[in-house]
Amino acid sequence: LVIFLFLLPVFFFQMTKSVTNPEELGGLASQMTNDYGHLALQGRMAAATAEPEEIGFQIRTRVQELGHGCIFLVQKAGALQICPTDSYTKRELIECARAVTEKVSLVLSALQAGNKGTQACITAASAVSGIIADLDTTIMFATAGTLNAENNESFADHR
């Protein structure tokens, strides 16, 4: 999902760059449409599994808003292909690309908000793994007899 979000701005940049070569816009618009389709599918799954529910709603809403922005961008690209010398349409295409880039960042922020619990679990799992590794190391040294005992008890008695 995140990969698609990073790819979309590349297409927007190419679209705004293609203002000087409007014949390239059709292929770029087609590619962006395909990428958005994949993004929408992944976004639907991310929204369904997000906790709390309001994060899922936020992901779904922002992906939809991004879709609307993509529609406007494709429409402006088509209009520029029809009239490649129209400077007003060129400016509108660039503005649509900027708006879509903003919407991509909003989708990313919603995904990051939904990812906080996952990141906390990853951090906790990492900390627990570190503790387990430290305990294993301590057990290894204790078994080898290299740790100083406070009294005459052996490690095997406590293990």
Describe this structure in words.
Residues 1-18 form the signal peptide. InterPro entries: Alpha-catenin/vinculin-like_sf, Vinculin-bd_dom. Keywords: Cytoplasm, Signal. One of its GO terms (molecular function) is integrin binding. This is TLN2 protein. It is a single chain. The protein is mainly alpha-helical and 159 residues long. It has one domain: A middle domain of Talin 1 (Up-down Bundle). It contains six helices and no strands. The longest helix is centred in the middle third of the chain and has 30 residues, at 53-82.
Keyword list:
single chain; 159 residues; mainly alpha; A middle domain of Talin 1; 6 helices; 83% helix
Please write the CATH class name: Mainly Alpha
In DSSP terms (H or I, runs of 4 or more residues), the helix count works out at: 6
What's the name of the CATH homologous superfamily? Talin, central domain
Question: What series of H and E elements makes up the topology?
Answer: HHHHHH
Proportion of beta-strand residues: under 5%
Briefly note the CATH topology name. Answer: A middle domain of Talin 1
Task: State the low-pLDDT regions, or none.
Answer: none
Structural class comes to: mainly alpha
Overall pLDDT score: 76
Number of domains: 1
The gist of it:
The chain has 159 residues and is mostly helical.
List the helices and strands and how they pair.
Elements: H1 2-17, H2 25-49, H3 53-82, H4 87-114, H5 116-144, H6 155-158
Helix pairs in contact: 1-2, 1-4, 2-3, 3-4
